[in-house]
Design brief:
Oligomer: single chain
Distance between the termini: 28 Å
Shape: globular
Bound molecules: beta-D-glucopyranose
Low-confidence stretches: none
Helix content: 40-55%
Structural class: alpha/beta
Number of domains: 1
Largest sheet: 8 strands, parallel, barrel
Strand content: 5-15%
Mean pLDDT: 95
Length: 509
């Protein structure tokens, strides 16, 4: 069982944002339209075998043509905010220089539509769709990419700075470096193992330069970045397992968070041989660690780590869902491996469902980084196979996705309790939670087989059908607003209209 929407609503603090998230390449389709240039992902996805069942991103959710319908779904849902990403190849088809006006126009319309519906826009600048010409120059292996990202960020700041409330520079650099450059599971499909390391630094530098570009234009919106975080849990109390979990923690969490939040790579990384194979002057570290208005955290699951060779750093169940035979460079070659969690419920992706580790993630972040800015959970969600129930008498469809609904309710509840006064992560100033995802979409190398949506997408007809989890979130938001109104009424009775107005205004994120 999970907490009722009403009880959950009662523990949502004033000003906390409830939102939904997507990314351009996963939903837009229209890859050859209105001057969009090719992306590295277009080419990678066309490689036979790269995507499960060779699913194509060409149409995805057809959001490019159905944007107003999708915004209407969000309006009906009642969310405070929508996190989307700009498609770099739509804005700058060659990745540098010339800007494609038709690309800007699409996001102009999206932003206006959101604001007209009182949905606050949170925009990700880079969610993995690198313009192909930049990938051909080495992509993130090339230091110049960081400057290209900054140039692109400056264009976005000029065009949309007046309307974007929150900016995320880069989404999950860890996934790009590991899946894209170390293990070959994502575009650009490189299997460089430790040779992928420069891509970490160049993305982080790109983040820092993008922050500078946004600030140079003076955008009023808040600026942050998003890292994925998975608590690393040793398989046993065996010291070797604990060391292995520590190494995974370094490689997947601290490698990306430490430079941004402390201005330093972890000591063990700095001591490693590969650290001297690329340029990383001190000035870079200052750029990377500029103060942020918020820190974005994507939390999906913890990782159980054991010493010794095994499936490698990508869990077997997940690699299988991505169509990989696990032969990729580096995976399997690691001195430790990811273990399964036999007692845990698992998602269709093979991910363990462990809401209690949401609290661990927040606690570890709070303990490790004394200067942690306010945190926003920029993604969280689960893929489960959905069943469509048809009611012939009314000709309606119903999707009872109880497991996704429970996943979301449990994770949000855990995060709220952990960061409340007296909670295990009370030092963390948590400001919001964005559900991944608004609708079922192109789940990278897992194609359309991993549905994360609150809204079901029929990939034949492109029909959108809200699932039970959508109605749950809708009810939660309604309950929250009712509770806020009730509080305002009490304040009005005691302290007058002005104070009540303030209470009502801060209740919405
Ligand atoms: C990414 C999303 C992805 C989701 C589920 C995150 O790593 O930011 O693009 O769809 O997780 O795998």
């Amino acid at each position: 069982m999970h907490i009722t929407a009403k009880d959950l609503a009662a523990i949502i603090p004033p000003g906390f944002t409830l939102g939904v998230a997507t990314a351009a390449f996963q939903i837009e389709g229209a890859l050859d339209e209105d001057g969009r240039g090719p992306a590295g992902w277009d080419v990678f996805a066309a490689r036979p075998g790269a995507i499960v069942e060779n699913h194509s991103p060409a149409i995805a959710c057809d959001h490019y043509h159905r944007m107003p319908e999708d915004v209407a779904l969000m309006k009906q849902l009642g969310v405070d905010s929508y996190r989307f990403s700009f498609a770099w190849p739509r804005i700058q088809p060659k990745g540098r220089g010339a800007v494609n006006q038709a690309g800007l126009d699409f996001y102009d319309r999206l932003l206006d539509e959101l604001l007209a519906n009182e949905i606050s826009p949170m925009a990700t600048i880079y969610h993995w769709d690198t313009p192909l010409p930049l990938d051909e120059e080495g992509g993130w292996l090339n230091r110049d990419m960081a400057h290209r990202l900054a140039e692109y960020a400056g264009i976005l700041a000029e065009a949309f700075g007046d309307r974007v409330a929150r900016w995320v520079t880069i989404n999950e650099p860890a996934t790009v470096s590991a899946n894209g450059y170390a293990f070959g599971l994502h575009s650009p499909g490189k299997e460089l193992a430790l040779g992928a390391f420069p891509t970490v630094h160049h993305q982080l530098l790109g983040h820092g330069l993008a922050v500078q570009a946004l600030r140079a234009v003076g955008v009023p919106g808040e600026i942050g970045m998003t890292n994925v975080y998975s608590p690393m849990v040793p398989n046993s109390i065996n010291p070797l397992d604990r060391v292995s979990a520590g190494l995974m923690d370094l490689a997947q969490n601290r490698l990306y968070a430490d430079p941004v939040l402390t201005g330093k790579y972890p000591d063990l990384i700095r001591a490693a041989k590969f650290f001297s194979t690329f340029e990383h002057p001190d000035e870079d570290m200052e750029t990377i660690s500029q103060p942020l208005d918020f820190y974005g955290l994507n939390y999906y699951m913890p990782t159980k780590v054991a010493a010794g060779p095994g499936g490698g750093a990508v869990p077997a169940s997940m690699a299988e869902a991505m169509g990989s035979d696990l032969s990729a460079a580096g995976n399997g070659g690691t001195p430790f491996h990811v273990e399964t969690w036999p007692e845990a419920d698992i998602t269709a992706y093979g991910w363990p469902v462990k809401p209690e580790y949401m609290a661990v993630a927040l606690k570890e972040m709070g303990e490790r980084y004394p200067n942690l800015p306010p945190v926003i959970l920029t993604e969280g969600g689960a893929s489960f196979e959905d069943i469509i129930v048809r009611d012939k008498s009314t000709n309606t469809r119903f999707i009872p996705d109880e497991r996704r609904l429970k996943y979301l309710s449990d994770h949000l509840e855990t995060a709220l309790r952990a960061t409340a006064p007296g909670g295990m992560a009370e030092s963390v100033d948590l400001r919001g939670y964005y559900v991944w995802s608004l609708m079922d979409n192109f789940e990278w190398s897992a194609g359309y087989n991993q549905p994360f949506g609150l809204v079901h997408l029929d990939h034949e007809t492109l029909e959108r059908t809200p699932k039970a989890s959508y109605f749950w979130l809708q009810e939660l938001i309604e309950e929250r607003d009712l509770a806020a109104e009730a509080t305002a009424a009490v304040v009005r009775a005691v302290a007058g209209d002005e104070a009540a107005g303030e209470v009502a205004a801060t209740a919405q994120g």
